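BACKBONE STRUCTURE TOKENS:
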Amino acid sequence: MTLTFDQNTYRNLLAEVVPVAIETEEEYERILKVIEELTFKKNRTKEEQVLHKLLVILIEAYETEHYPIEESAPHEILQHIMEASGTRQADLVGIIGSSTVVSEVVSGKRSISQAQAKALSEHFKVSPGLFI
């Protein structure tokens, strides 16, 4: 069953929510609240689905401008994956090199080679691109 789109219903939703380009933290919080309500609402109408998508786009634009995500260095990604998986530096000895090499790679004193990135990706079952 395909839901039909009713423009009058959508207009009423727009009038109720009044979505605008988000310029303030207060507006950001207001739109987040509406998104949360729509996200957890059971049996959303087609109009509510379309409004939800629009509001997510507005939130993403605001967050991109005001909360940029900084790129992580490859060794920081490795540290995070190690922590999340309970891996110790000693566990990587023989996979990417000696204990000295492992220590230097994990601390960021030595960059991760392509061969090491491949070995780490196989060990952790992730993309080698994370380490390059």
